[in-house]
Amino acid sequence: MRVSEMENHPRYRATAKLDELRASEYARLDAGRHVYLDYTGGGHYAESQLRAHLALLREHVYGNPHSTNPTSQAMTERVEGTRRAILEFFNADPDEYCAIFTQNATGALKLVGEAYPFAPGDRYLLTFDNHNSVNGIREFGRARGAHVTYVPITLPDLRVDADALLEELERPNPNGNNLFAYPAQSNFSGVQHPLEFVEWAHARGWDVLLDAAAFTPTNRLDLGRVKPDFVSQSFYKIFGYPTGVGALIAKRETLKKLRRPWFAGGTITVASVQGDKYYLSEGEAAFEDGTLNYLIIPAVKIGLEHIQAVGYDLIHERVMLLAEYLLERLQALKHPNGEPLVRLYGPASTEGRGGTLTMNFYDAQGHAIDHREIERRANAQNISLRTGCFCNPGGGEIALGITGTELAHCFRQPGHETRVTVDDFRLCIDGKSSGAVRVSLGIVSNVRDVDTFLEFARGLII
Ligand SMILES: Cc1ncc(COP(=O)(O)O)c(C=O)c1O
């Protein structure tokens, strides 16, 4: 199908509202001739989001929330209204879940990691495919004597080995605490790991941390149906603006077992110097340290309303149509001698995946073209894509065939005890690719973005 055919395709035409939206609300993309293919890195905002937020700040006088003075009360209403809007957006029952404001998804994950009551013999189970902010929780677990176990993902689709997962889930610490963490969508491969894992784990005595950061920009997460204990979220990935606000959406019941390592302004009911004692607040307040980013938080509600007005189904449909178009065409690209140009990491079809595609390019002799060279060339054409390992080393190691033995050898070498540069690392893995090229689609992606990238890829054929 050529571009014009795709533009006339009935399913694509049915998503034409997004083209109108791009023209009216995201005109800066085309005015700057941008080909933006890094939605998993960060989403884009509509101009109306900025106007609405600015109007709010211009027209009201706001003070630091959580006091009884009028400007403070006005702000408290906005902050609490945004909290309610977040729960509503994810269809989370406010009696069951609460929304804790954090700086980003990483902040949400750190809150869980530092306060989860890991003790000797407890377990932290996680998939190979995880963002480093989920991997990092292992250090909190280990420091308190918990066992850390990774469940493998398998080639070629980079999905979790379900048998291996079940085997581990069957072995919780029976009298202790057990935390299982995985991403609803991989930021490396775009794989959507089954949401059913949540109930598999619950049924076997585990708490579940679902990292939704790469999933929710183009997929609806319904916490009325899927009920993880903790969900991590960064809002800029869904609607671009504001940055600096995320949330930990947590089950109230599970939250009660977290033990914060300290207290701070805003997190206590009473703290005493002479009495040397403090009492933590209930629910979300105990997890929000100091003054919230209060002037910015109402922009989250504006963003959520924007997504609701556009419609998740429409965004999802457009993104998946484009993903299918891109998957088919990328895999068909060949050098004149018949060698494939592209090696894709992850599912080759749209089944059980999202609109994030990761790959490496190869020359006609089958040698990988350095992903940094691809990025340099893409930059020159105003194409924004992302290269490297995207903070997901487990996904990268499996996809790129880097083994544990190789890594152990590398990290044990003299001089590598505390410091390894990217170039040292490349030497260690003996010429294998140390990273890949990622393109990701989002709310106002169109077929021209995808086609420009395909044209760019064709330019690598020799
Ligand atoms: C799956 C996933 N989890 C967590 C994060 C961390 O998000 P942030 O950097 O906003 O904290 C990202 C960021 O790309 C991600 O893709």
Describe the structure.
The chain is α/β, with parallel strands linked by helices and 462 residues long. 39% of the residues lie in helices and 16% in strands. It has helices at residues 3-8, 10-13, 17-25, 27-31, 47-59, 70-89, 105-115, 132-135, 137-143, 162-169, 197-202, 236-239, 252-255, 298-310, 312-332, 371-380, 393-400, 404-412, 422-428, 447-458; strands spanning 35-36, 97-102, 123-127, 147-151, 153-154, 159-160, 178-183, 207-211, 230-234, 246-251, 268-272, 277-280, 342-345, 356-362, 368-369, 383-384, 386-388, 436-440. The strands form 5 sheets. The chain has a 7-stranded mixed beta sheet, sandwiched between helices. The chain is globular, with a radius of gyration of 23 Å. The model has no long low-confidence stretch (mean pLDDT 96). Bound molecules: pyridoxal-5'-phosphate (PLP). Pyridoxal-5'-phosphate binds at residues 40, 104-106, 131, 133, 183, 187, 211, 213-214, 234.
List the helices and strands and how they pair.
Elements: H1 3-8, H2 10-13, H3 17-25, H4 27-31, E1 35-36, H5 47-59, H6 70-89, E2 97-102, H7 105-115, E3 123-127, H8 132-135, H9 137-143, E4 147-151, E5 153-154, E6 159-160, H10 162-169, E7 178-183, H11 197-202, E8 207-211, E9 230-234, H12 236-239, E10 246-251, H13 252-255, E11 268-272, E12 277-280, H14 298-310, H15 312-332, E13 342-345, E14 356-362, E15 368-369, H16 371-380, E16 383-384, E17 386-388, H17 393-400, H18 404-412, H19 422-428, E18 436-440, H20 447-458
Parallel strand pairs: 1-16, 3-4, 3-7, 7-8, 8-9
Antiparallel strand pairs: 2-10, 5-6, 9-10, 11-12, 13-14, 14-15, 14-18, 17-18
Helix pairs in contact: 5-14, 6-14, 7-9, 15-20
This protein binds pyridoxal-5'-phosphate.
